[in-house]
Amino acid sequence: MNMVITIPSRLKQFAGTIQAKDFFWIRLACFAFLASLFLWPLLSHASDINAFVMLNLSSYERDAVITMRRFFELPLWDPYYCGGIYALGSPQSRFASPSFLISLIFGQERGALLIAFVLLIVGMEGCFRYLRSIHHNSWSALLCAPLFPLSGFFASLFFLGWINFFSFLAIPWLLWGVRQSVHSKSAGLVSIALSAAWMTGFGGTYSVPMAALAAVFECFVVLASLRKSPKRLRELLVSYLIAGMLSVFLSCYRLWPIIESLHAAPRIMTGTPAHSLRTLGAMLFERLAPEQGNLSVHGQYYIGIALIPLIVLGSFRRSMLPYVAALGLSLWTATGYASQLSPFAALRHLPIFSTFRYPERYLIFVALYATILCAEALHRLFQLAQRKRALHPILLGALLLLFTTYSLMISDHVHAVAGMHFEHAPKTIERSFHQASGSRWALSYFAPMSRGSLLLGSLSSSAISPLTC
Fold first, then answer.
1. pLDDT (0 to 100) of residue 458
2. Residue by residue, what is the 3-state secondary structure of the chain?
3. Per residue in 284-311, pLDDT tens?
């Protein structure tokens, strides 16, 4: 009796075990290991200040921590920035979310690293569930789940100080909720509503409106699959309507103040940003390149050229055509005003999207839909290799491409951290609060010294001496 069991057979058995028993904690341990590798270079600088981003984005969180720790008050008003601002109505502040507890316990600097660690794990788990809901295969979903959270966009966030942009990691949970509503209405409703509310509270200025676009697209995909069942179609439409209303209700604690702020001080963006396909290719396929304390466009949305064969292979299936179209539409939108017919220009006629001036951020969805196509490619290769042993080398080659991409993604983050400039956090001086002349680029020094900055100007930090406050 032939006792030889092929590699694909063993993988299928293991995948079946994961599907049946759902090794939740083992899966999270694997994701935690990858997140640790991704953030490891930052551990030695956990308490330092990123000198490149001494501005309001980190100050929002730091000022909220000071308000809670020192005055035992809710951080509804921020007296440290621009003579005082409505903190809860500031769209980019991220303290109105559960993750603020981490900052409150460990401080803003250390808390940012821990928040990123937790959210990377949450994002990988969300991708796993979302991919499995599409492909019904735990093994390909498990292997490809980290592709989106480890892409170049998230690798560049710490360099730029845009911690609030980690809210994009909730998008897979939102889309999983859309798909899960077909099988479990309650689970789908909860996932949609909580994802939307958390992104709103975490400063999702771009992530929430862009996630809404992806959710609408996913709704159409799901509803199209049920077009032959009118009764279920109507039930699902009602579920999505309830989910939307629940999302607004849970988010209104932030939405209302933000709407008030935008109404009082409208944000008007001008210009016609445009990117060629060559520039977008550099963003997607070249390595991150820190240059003179800043990041060039190269690699900021890195997914790696090694994934192209898997993306192409995953596209040759009828069920994947909507995601191929979504990837192409996202790439087209990312070109901005480069062509006369511009989806980006059309979106800017909408109320919220009129304030968006960076079309390249739609490459985030290129990374997400590329992840779906890669998972489909692996799923097909596993099926084919189980039938024909001659295809085993192709399967192993695909896995090699995948793991090579992961190693490059992790090394990209190492390169980004190596290009950062850190400074020791200033000592806290307990004294009466006063306003002082200053710039947002030096805000990291003002709050610890009980001083507020009256200026919003773009003066360099070298032009302002915090010691004069």
1. 45
2. CCCCCCHHHHHHHHHHHHHHHCCHHHHHHHHHHHHHHHHHHHHHHCCEEEHHHCCHHHHHHHHHHHHHHHHCCCCCEECCCCCCEEHHHCCCCCCCCCCHHHHHHHCHHHHHHHHHHHHHHHHHHHHHHHHHHHHCCHHHHHHHCCCCCCCHHHHCHHHHCCHHHHHHHHHHHHHHHHHHCCCCHHHHHHHHHHHHHHHHHCCCCCHHHHHHHHHHHHHHHHHHHCCCCHHHHHHHHHHHHHHHHHHHHHHHHHHHHHHHHHHHCCCCCCCCCECCHHHHHHHHHCCCCEECCEECCCCCCCCCHHHHHHHHHHHCCHHHHHHHHHHHHHHHHHCECCCCCCHHHHHCCCCCHHHCCCHHHHHHHHHHHHHHHHHHHHHHHHHHHHHCHHHHHHHHHHHHHHHHHHHHHHHHHHHHHHCCCEEECCCCCCCCCEEECCCHHHHHHHHHHCEEECCCCCCCHHHCCHHHC
3. 998 887 765 567 778 889 998 999 999 9
Q: What is this structure's pTM?
A: 0.89
